[in-house]
Design brief:
NAD(P)-bd_dom_sf; metal-binding; alpha+beta; 3 helices; flat; two-stranded parallel ribbon
Length: 47
């Protein structure tokens, strides 16, 4: 999904997960921001 979002012109892509290794992979695949939902409040972070 990240690569598709990038291909369609998304300028900001936010990946949310509870595992840091998956978030690191999301960054490699094109996520511009990552949020670990186990450590941070997702709604507060996205605002």
């Amino acid at each position: 999904c990240l690569q598709i979002a990038r291909a369609f012109g998304a300028s900001e892509i936010i990946a949310v997960d509870v595992q840091d290794d998956k978030l690191q992979n999301a960054k490699k695949l094109g996520a511009t921001h990552t949020v670990n939902a186990a450590k941070e409040n997702v709604a507060d972070r996205i605002r």
